[in-house]
Amino acid sequence: MVLFAWAAVGIAVLLLLGAAALLLLDDALAALVIGMLAAVALAVVLRTALRLRRWPAGRLGFFRDRLVLVQGRTELQAQWDLVETVTLADQGDWAAARWPELSLTDRLTVRLRPARRFSFRPATFGVEPAACRDLVLRLRDERALRDRLPEFDSALDLMSRPLHMGELIRPEL
Q: What pLDDT shows up at residue 45?
C-alpha cells in the first residue's frame, strides 16, 4: 500500500507538471483536463494516506497449535491446550466487589493454566470482540477445526503475511 501511495504521488506530480507545461503553451483546455486528472490523483494519495494511518499496529494470528498476538515488539503466544478461559467480563479488582453483577468490556481476557493471563482489544485487529471470543473458544475446544489452520513456524511467518484492514469483521470457520 505504501508503494501504491508513492506511485500515486509520482503520477500526480507528473500530471501537475504536464498541466503547467500546457499552460505555458497557451493550451488552457488541455491544461484544465490534465489538472483535473492531477486532482483525482491527489485525492487518491489523500485516501491512501488516511487508510495507512488507520492500519492496525499489531497482528493476531490463529494457528493449529497456538494463538499468537503481536503488538509492536511484544509477542504473546498461547497454546490451545493451556487456554483455560476466554471472557469479555471486566477483570478489574474492583469488579469482584460487585459480584454477581457482570459488566462486559471490549477487552478479551485469555486466562492460561499456569495462572497467567493476557488481554487485548480485538477491535484493534479489526475483529468484533464477541466474535473473537467465540472463535477462540471454538478453536480451543474443537481439534478438527484447528486442523484446518496453518502450522506456526516462527514470528517471521507473521511478518510475511499481509495485513487485512477495513471494518470490523465476524470471523467464521
A: 87
